[in-house]
C-alpha cells in the first residue's frame, strides 16, 4: 500500500517532458467530511482536489492555485485550492438532485469553470477553463493547450476514500525526438486504470507505465488538509464590507458571527472588536 497523502514530480531524462503524481487519503477524507456529499459530488471534489495539487506543481512562486466552478445544475459551486507548500482545502454546494447525477456536465449544467492563481506577492491571474468535455481531466488538458500552449495529459480518479492524479506535460522548445517520446508516454499513460492510480505507490506505478523509459523521480512531498482562514483574515473581510454595514449588523444582532465555508471554524466579533477594526482602539 502506498504512503498516504503524497505528491511527487518526475521528468523524462534528456527531454522537455515532465510529470507529477499525487495520491490523497486522509486529506481527501478531511475535505470530503465537511459536508454530507453524495458519492458523485464527493468524487468530483476529489478529482478537483488532486488536479489543483498537480497543477500547483507548475507554479514558480509562493501562493495558491484554485479551481472554481459555478454551475446551473445540481452542483452549484465547486472549489478546491492548493498552496505552494501543498496545503489543500475544498468545498462543494449542491442540491438534493445531485445524488442522482454523475459526470461533469450532468452535475454542473451550463456552468463556468476557472483557474485562479494568487501569488503571495504580485498580481492575481484567472483563466477560463473550456467546458467541451465531460471529464475534468480533459477540460483541464484543453486549458493548458489553449492558454499556455503546453501539451498536457491529465488522469484523475477518486472513490469515496481516496483520490489520485497523474499529470504529463510537454514543455515548449522540445525536439523532434521529444515528439516521438511524447506520443509514446502519452499512450502508455492512457492505459492507467483507476485501481492502479488509487492504490499503487509512485515508484511501482511509474515503473509499470514507463519501465522502458529513463525517468528521474524527485523526493516525495507531503500533502495535508489545512484551511488558511484566521481571525485576522475574517476581520479583513469585515473591513471590506464597510463600517456602516458592520455597525448595522451589530445593532441588529449584538455581535457579528462568521463561519468558514471550508473548515467550519466559527468566529465571533463584538462591538469592541469592530471599534478597534475601524478606529484602531476600543470605544466601549
Q: Output the radius of gyration.
A: 21 Å
Question: Poorly predicted ranges (pLDDT <50, ≥5 residues)?
Answer: none
CATH architectural grouping of the largest domain: 3-Layer(bab) Sandwich
Number of helices, counting only DSSP H or I runs of 4 residues or more? 10
The fraction of residues in strands falls at 25-35%
Cα end-to-end separation:
59 Å
Mind telling me the CATH superfamily name of the largest domain? Hsp33 domain
Level of helix content? 25-40%
Tell me the series of helices and strands, N- to C-terminal.
EEHHEEEHEEHEEHHHEEEHHEEH
Q: Find the count of extended strands (DSSP E, 2+ residues).
A: 14
Shape: elongated
Overall pLDDT level: 90
Any overview of this molecule?
The chain has 284 residues and is α+β, with helices and mostly antiparallel strands. It folds into two domains: 6-225, Hsp33 domain (3-Layer(bab) Sandwich), CATH 3.55.30; 231-279, Alpha-Beta Complex (CBS domain Like), CATH 3.90.1280. The protein contains ten helices and 14 strands. The strands form three sheets. Strands 1, 2, 8, 9, 10 and 11 form a six-stranded antiparallel beta sheet that branches. A six-stranded mixed beta sheet has the order 7-6-3-4-5-12, with helices on one face. A hairpin with a 3-residue loop joins strand 4 (75-83) and strand 5. The chain starts with 5 loop residues before the first strand and ends in a 5-residue tail after the last helix. The mean pLDDT is 90.
Chain-wise SSE layout:
Blueprint lengths: L5 E7 L4 E8 L1 H7 L6 H18 L6 E8 L4 E9 L3 E8 L9 H5 L3 E8 L5 E5 L6 H13 L2 E8 L4 E8 L5 H14 L4 H6 L2 H9 L4 E3 L3 E2 L1 E2 L5 H11 L1 H11 L2 E4 L6 E4 L1 H9 L5
Parallel strand pairs: 5-12
Antiparallel strand pairs: 1-2, 1-10, 1-11, 2-9, 3-4, 3-6, 4-5, 6-7, 8-9, 13-14
Amino acid at each position: 500500500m502506498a504512503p498516504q497523502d503524497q505528491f511527487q514530480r518526475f521528468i523524462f531524462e534528456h527531454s522537455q517532458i515532465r510529470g507529477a503524481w499525487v495520491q490523497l487519503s486522509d486529506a481527501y477524507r478531511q475535505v470530503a467530511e465537511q459536508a454530507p456529499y453524495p458519492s458523485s459530488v464527493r468524487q468530483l471534489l476529489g478529482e478537483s482536489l488532486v488536479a489543483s495539487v498537480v497543477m500547483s506543481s507548475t507554479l514558480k512562486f509562493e501562493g495558491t492555485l484554485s479551481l472554481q466552478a459555478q454551475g446551473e445544475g445540481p452542483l452549484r459551486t465547486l472549489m478546491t485550492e492548493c498552496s505552494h507548500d501543498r496545503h489543500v482545502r475544498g468545498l462543494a454546494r449542491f442540491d438534493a438532485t445531485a445524488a442522482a447525477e454523475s459526470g461533469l456536465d450532468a452535475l454542473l449544467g451550463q456552468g463556468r469553470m476557472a483557474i485562479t492563481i494568487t501569488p503571495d506577492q504580485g498580481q492575481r491571474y484567472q483563466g477560463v477553463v473550456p467546458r467541451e468535455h465531460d471529464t475534468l481531466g480533459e477540460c483541464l488538458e484543453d486549458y493548458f493547450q489553449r492558454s499556455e500552449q503546453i501539451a498536457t495529459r491529465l488522469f484523475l480518479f477518486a472513490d469515496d476514500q481516496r483520490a489520485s492524479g497523474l499529470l504529463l506535460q510537454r514543455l515548449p522548445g522540445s525536439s523532434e525526438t521529444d515528439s516521438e517520446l511524447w506520443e509514446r508516454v502519452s499512450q502508455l499513460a492512457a492505459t492507467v486504470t483507476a485501481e492502479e492510480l488509487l492504490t499503487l505507490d509512485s515508484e511501482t506505478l511509474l515503473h509499470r507505465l514507463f519501465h522502458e523509459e529513463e525517468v528521474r523521480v524527485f523526493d516525495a512531498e507531503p500533502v495535508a488538509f489545512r484551511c488558511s482562514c484566521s481571525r485576522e483574515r475574517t476581520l479583513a473581510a469585515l473591513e471590506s464590507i464597510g463600517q456602516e454595514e458592520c455597525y448595522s449588523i451589530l445593532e441588529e444582532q449584538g455581535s457579528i458571527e462568521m463561519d468558514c465555508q471550508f473548515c467550519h471554524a466559527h468566529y465571533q466579533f463584538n462591538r469592541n472588536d469592530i471599534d478597534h477594526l475601524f478606529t484602531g482602539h476600543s470605544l466601549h
